[in-house]
Amino acid sequence: MIKRFLQKINYLFAMPYLFLADIIAIIHFGYVAFVVLGFILIFSGIIFKWKWIRNLPFRITHLLAIIGVACEALLGVNCPLTVLEFKLRYASNLSEEKVSFIGTIVDSLLFYNAPGWLFTIIYTAFAITVIITFIIAPPKRKDRLD
């Protein structure tokens, strides 16, 4: 009975860490979604001649987001969001079975079991492709969009 009580207390103290880890995982998912969906929209905008895809702040932010990921991969640096999320989960002192539902879902969308060199190639190729869209459909300042 005491052991069960201590497990419940441990779980209560772990909850803030798990909650923060889930928040980081959701932010990480949003970052990935911004990069991927942003590229799809830019590419579609090139085909359909949408003017808004030439929005300078959007395009620079998008380019910097993927260049940052590619540079991390090329330098062998772990993603800070991944590191922070895992440190928070580890700090919770709970086994993997106790990881939250949200964390499990988001992590299954973000993390794949493949060699690091493969991710480096994918991220770098993606960054080069985004740079090419900068050349094909360069962004313009707001006053020059027309």
Helix and strand arrangement:
Blueprint: H1 2-48, H2 56-75, H3 80-91, H4 101-110, H5 116-136
How far the N terminus sits from the C terminus, by CA atoms, comes to: 72 Å
Number of strands: 0
Radius of gyration based on Cα positions: 20 Å
Number of spatially distinct domains = 1
In percent, how much strand structure appears in the residues? under 5%
Unreliable runs:
none
User: What's the overall geometry?
Assistant: elongated
Q: What about the largest sheet?
A: none
Overall mean confidence score, pLDDT? 87
Compute the number of helices: 5
Class by SSE composition: mainly alpha
Secondary-structure element order, N to C:
HHHHH
Helicity range:
over 70%
Write a structural description.
With 146 residues, the protein is mostly helical. It is built from five helices and no strands. Helix 1 crosses helix 2. 18% of the residues are buried.
